[in-house]
Amino acid sequence: MGKGGAAAAAAAAKPSASAWRVGALNAEGYRIKEAIRQQRGASGEVRVGVRGKWYDVSKFVERHPGGDVLLEFQDRDATAQFIAYHDEAKVLKHWRPVGTYEFDEAAPGGDPLEGEYLKLAAHFEREGYFETDMRWFAGKLALTTMMLLGALLGAIAYVQAGSRLSFVAGAVLLAGFWQQSGFFMHDFMHNQIFHRRQLDQWFGWFFGGVCFGVSGRWWRDEHNEHHLFTNSIVAGVGRADPQMGETIWAQDPKLFEFFARPVLRLLLRIQHIIFLPILIFVGPFGIKIDTIVSENRPSEFAAIGMHWLWSAALVSAFPSWLEGALFYYVASCCTGVLMIQLLISHYASPFIEKDEAKTSGTWMRRQLGACTDIACPWWVDWFHGGLNLHSPHHLFPRMPRHNYRKAHALITAAAAKHDVKVHVLSWTGAIIQTLRHLRKMETLFSMDPR
């Protein structure tokens, strides 16, 4: 978009839904598209660069799942971002270049680490790292199914014999089923399993909405933005990375502008104290409420409705509603551990201005700087959903998680060539680092003159 970034930041008005098709662009995309219209008229030509060639995506931008991302990279090189999400050979064969620009394969944007990223991507493509091992998938599917059956058997055993052990075991297994369903939603919404968008996203709809109670497509829309502009913020506009810039936590001084209200200011001052309790005891309900409030697609409401129907049937099977509700709540609290995993991988990382995130030659460097990997034995990966190795996932979102360990070793070696560190901590170490960071933000906020 060239100099359009500054103009986009100044454009606060959102066009009416009738002006553009609804569904492909999030709120940030509408804002940017309005800026393009003001700059260039109704045509809004959009060119994106890949490996020194310009491609006109004007007619495709509203149908693209990351439509606002195409707008963000107008008149910019987006080679690394493109490769991260697409099989280059398959996609570009359908597009004809409309121009060329200077491109250095060894150091795109003047960054040799970006050249390492292109080499890694080519290696992973050749070696089949982006292909799914269906035996692995079948094993995970079996594990998830057994967890659901175990939860139901635990509930039945408690109802029939009053076994407290069965009650607790059933609730923990129900949490495991929700957790694994959430991981499957994540896999499918990244099109990692079948690599067929419609099929993958149908399964994402099922595991996200019906099994977990969260709209997979709502989550996907926010997650696309989160991946491409991790920990970014548009200053003065009040928008940040939608999945890491939640306005209940302040991980960076750039987010202080969100905390003008007295209640939020109070929460910021105690955020390091309430962080874990909120995630465990309230967090799972928060994300389910958020998805209902933010979603507007009938198909997603249908999936969520089915989730609450089977959940209500389970709760009603207990001798009393109180016992059923307690079973559900214990399971929900256990699921809160999943939220801890997802947040500690990013929460101690700095935020940057969104225009800086769009500068070419920064993809690998930025993603490594924004991710914290969790060290654990390989046999614990099932618990973390493989996302403990978060840097491979952010660098190569098309890659199935069973290949993260192999990829992580190669990524670490490539980064070391350029003195770039891959951040790795233990589970407890990452939690402690996050809490210390939130405490530091509280201290900086108390000194902030605003």
Structure, described:
This protein is mostly helical. The chain is 60% helix and 5% strand. A hairpin with a 2-residue loop joins strand 1 and strand 2. Helix 7 packs antiparallel against helix 8 (164-189), helix 8 (164-189) packs antiparallel against helix 9 and helix 9 (197-212) packs parallel to helix 14. The longest helix has 28 residues, at 134-161. It starts with a helix and ends with a helix. Residues 1-27 have low confidence and may be disordered.
Helix content: 55-70%
Number of strands: 8
Strand content: 5-15%
Rg over CA atoms, rounded to whole Å, is 23 Å
H/I helix tally: 21
Task: Give the rounded overall mean pLDDT.
Answer: 85
General form:
globular
Low-pLDDT runs of 5+ residues are 1-27
- Gap from first CA to last CA: 32 Å
The arrangement of helices and strands along the chain is: HHEEHHHEHHHHHEEHHHHHEHHEHHHEH
- Biggest sheet, strands in spatial order? 1-2-3
How many strands, which pairing sense, and closed or not: the largest β-sheet? Answer: 3 strands, antiparallel
Given the helix and strand composition, which structural class is it? mainly alpha
What are the main properties of this structure?
single chain; 450 residues; mainly alpha; 3-stranded antiparallel β-sheet; 21 helices; globular; disordered N terminus
Short recap of the structure:
With 450 residues, this protein is mainly alpha-helical.
